[in-house]
Amino acid sequence: MDTMRISAGAEKIPVKCNSMSSLVTRRWRTKTFPARIRTWRLLSVKSISTNPKTLVTDSEQVASSIKHHSEFTPLFSPEKFELPKAFFATAQSVRDALIVNWNATYEYYNRVNPKQAYYLSMEFLQEAASDAASERRVLRPPIKPAGRALSNAVGNLGLTGAYGDALKSLGFDLESVAGQEPDPALGNGGLGRLASCFLDSMATLNYPAWGYGLRYKYGLFKQIITKDGQEEAAEDWLELSNPWEIVRNDVSYPVKFYGKVVFGSDGRKRWIGGEDVVAVAYDVPIPGYKTKTTINLRLWSTKAPSGDFDLSSYNSGKHTEAAEALFNAEKICYVLYPGDESNEGKALRLKQQYTLCSASLQDIVARFETRSGGRSVNWEEFPEKVAVQMNDTHPTLCIPELMRILMDLKGLSWEDAWRITHRTVAYTNHTVLPEALEKWSLELMEKLLPRHVEIIEKIDEELVSTIVSEYGTQNPDLLKEKLKAMRILENVELPSAFADVIVKPESKPAIAEKTVDQTKDSKEDAQTVVKKEVEEEETAGVIAEVIPEPPKMVRMANLAVVGGHAVNGVAEIHSEIVKTDVFNDFVKLWPDKFQNKTNGVTPRRWIRFCNPYLSDIITNWIGTEDWVLNAEKLAELRKFADDEDLQSEWRAAKKKNKLKVVSLIKERTGYTVNPDAMFDIQIKRIHEYKRQLLNILGIVYRYKKMKEMSASERKKAFVPRVCIFGGKAFATYVQAKRIVKFITDVGSTINHDPEIGDLLKVIFVPDYNVSVAELLIPASELSQHISLSLSHRHVWCSGWIPLAGTLDLPRGDIDPGSALADLEFPFCRSVIVEAVMARGGWTMLAPPVLHLVWLLKPFVCGVECVSLLGVGAWCLVSNPSRVSAQGRRWWRSVGAYTKLLAGRVVRVSAWSCVCVLRRLQLPLSSMAELVVPLMMLSVLLSHQQGVVLKRNETVLGSLVLGSRRRLGPVFESSWSPSAGTEDPKFGLSSLQPDLSGGSELPDLHGFGDPAPPQSAVRASCPVKIQVLGKLSRSSSSDDVTRSPTSEETSTAGMEASGTSNMKFSMNGCILIGTLDGANVEIREEVGEENFFLFGAKADEIVSLRKERAEGKFVPDPSFEEVKQFVRSGVFGSNNYDELIGSLEGNEGFGRADYFLVGKDFPSYVECQERVDKAYRDQKRWTRMSILNTAGSSKFSSDRTIHEYAKDIWNIKQVELP
Description:
Keywords: Carbohydrate metabolism, Glycosyltransferase, Pyridoxal phosphate, Transferase
Pfam families: Phosphorylase (PF00343)
EC number: 2.4.1.1
Enzyme class: transferase
Strand content: 5-15%
Radius of gyration: 32 Å
Oligomer: single chain
Number of helices: 42
Shape: globular
Low-confidence stretches: 1-52, 127-147, 508-524, 537-545, 790-1052
Mean pLDDT: 73
Largest sheet: 9 strands, mixed
Function: Allosteric enzyme that catalyzes the rate-limiting step in glycogen catabolism, the phosphorolytic cleavage of glycogen to produce glucose-1-phosphate, and plays a central role in maintaining cellular and organismal glucose homeostasis.
């Protein structure tokens, strides 16, 4: 190995050129400047270890290493040696120590060539730092949270004491230095935290494994809380660089997009042309605990070759154009889950997913070839040496990509490539929510990845063959149902070989409508015109239909199930749902493929490092520290649960952790809280199904009752509480952001109420992340895991209509029922609305309003109807008898186009749209062009569907546009089929809604006509509308699930597993929650008496929703009381009508309390009373806390990884010599 010599003063220092583990020592010097005197630390080197395999363990050598890096790998100016510089120098020193084991691990794996697992995930959240003083047991509360990678690394290396002493000799303490580390913005939530826990367990258990992900420059977003609620800013975690990563400029792979597929001279297919980017590897070491094994997390960053920079254009002044290729390449890894409401956003997300898959698989294949020793590669051995785990559907393109590499680049046949791919790849399903069942537009994929579409089509064809062989052709209806549910390609014709297996019914050609006669008497009542036209068409037996081509989609979850050799859920209840509901048809075909692997978290990170006080207690009472590696030993605490000495120590440790949180809250929010109060914590991403709204309404009810009591009564009735919230609402999830705003408003009022004082505090910790979790979880006493155990989907017979509002939501979260009301279109964001009809037709409107002409192209034969509809249609709606001659002419022209859309001239409630404009404070003069899409939407949904829906289906409410408080009753009038008819009719019926709620109608002054009458015009045909819940993990999918033949699908939990509940339980926190996700298993392990259970069960949800839809639900008086209290204005001037309105009504969008907050509210309040009673008995409470920790052993990620290794990956532990 070559060496070079670096001069430092009078000494010559030999340094290995390819080693980053050389260690140095230096001495301090003071330099005097003429103007002023500064004491600063110059670096004079005494000695350096030249052995790259030497692991420094004593504090003197560690101090020398830190000083060396402060000078020879500097990121700061030399004058100062302050905390930021000390952090980077310390981290680089630790990285040197890691590299010793890292290189040894890599070299040993290359030598013995074991089967290796590769974990592909779009998210990794390097989490759970240790307390910096965890080994020296210095018990003092920090101001800042401990760093994630630094203290975790020194803890796993067993060097916490050495680094603590070294930094102390340099004038710092490890705790403060570690607090300088920013959170890596590589993930969003549970998906990324789980992936990081898994890497920790893989390394600790000595399993040969790597992680693969993307290196996001700006992450998701940084949350800022202002008086207006949540605001978002770009993450800056890479602004000062990342000391843990090592760029591998020699490890890069080409990633291609677009282009075309041709045949090469050798007969193989070649993907050529298009756009090429380069994926460059950034490696991060992941050390195991007390083991030499240090595995790798390889993150990909994208760039364009320097040759793509157009110097000619740049010099000619076209600077943006010159750098366009560079920007297009780099932006792939800018942001986690970029907004995908636009076609460009969809393409960018798909590029992200393919970049991860392509670069990772090229790297894996290259490593397999290298380890084959230069001999002829036996590709049949590939599954014996490689296991690829797809974490969620994001990496599903691994399947066609590995097929492409094996066939096009390595020359294998289809049969061989498929067999190898199938044996190599496995898929983890994380939730039954639609975002876990991604769909991508086939058209987009054909453009972006043409070769992969060919491969997917072939896989789909073979799947069709399997389905036909399994079910035969004797029962065409059954076969059609199975093909519809199981095919990878949705709304795509059957392959030619199977074109005749299902006989299609003959369809009558649509007959074009005649335009309304423009010569009719302009004074004729418009409703009479409509009636006559209806009668004429019925007489002729002609009904015009416009059924656009259904969008062709690629169902990624189905591809993952078909292509993988194993599919697993992440909790027992979730895995059962996966088998009985989500993939039931596949289970019948391949029952052995489906498994359960209950999630887990690492006890090293979540007890040993982040809670050293509790860690010490556990070790002392169990008598060994083996529990850190063998979590089953935690169960030994059970026999000491009633010991008063243990309980006393347990409470003291909890108090010390609470003092840390007191400091954090003061620093982040300015509030001072009482450490003797109960710390009641809910930290999750803000989502309606997580039900933070139930929590805060419970707090409001508590506050109201306190205000009604005297001081002595309050003290007797209530236990002091600090209620802490944390979590981010996605930037375009309006309802979630309303919840954040409401929580902060409630907190502002309660925290400043002198009558309440320390009896109740409400805290929202801004920018919740791993660092915050590391402080909150050890301090928690009660943790809320109150998500609703929900039915997976309410769907109806073959004519069900899902309606989706697509927002920019990376992990995608909106309430089924609030989409339209929350979109506030046309300005705030994009909207995509779909209506699926029984005959397979789709109706789609896409954003934005300014592109309305483009939006309506599929439905109209001209574009002039846009202005006509905007200017004149409202007149007939308002009062047909008062329409001017000019307005009537407009309407007749509009009718010609409307009939092509819906089959009839219909009256549309344009004034409902005015409410949207009023709420947005827009001038009425803007209404003409803005009302158009809302009116057309009403037409499309109401009347187009009436052509195809069955007569006896009931209605799920109406399309509520505008203010639900002011106009809600109007738009919730029920619809029903016309009496005495065999088929749906299209006549108009005027319903008289109940306006007793004080609904007001806006006047239309400025348009020349009075306000419309207080009645809603509805089509008599039945219609059912549903807003799909989670939308925009990939809005290209628009997440539409299939319609079953039964009334409703089986029930399923919204929370697949959850991992924060496991972390809380490990730290002795008692949970209050529902039987959802891993709560079920936690309750079984810790004991029913040590878990506060409330709320509806999963199998009750269907009947509860039906009860609500039928108007039979009677809200508890306490719930009505708390809503009225919120509306009274006690929490400020903000209008909470939209938020509270979502909990009211029986049906309708954004209403009807989809997540059963009102239903569970009295049960929740009663359960909180039981919590108060238990907390007053501190001996009982402490016993419950101890038993939660003792019962948490099952939820160690070590157990989970052992199961993956044995049952799915088939890999063995490899311990370094």
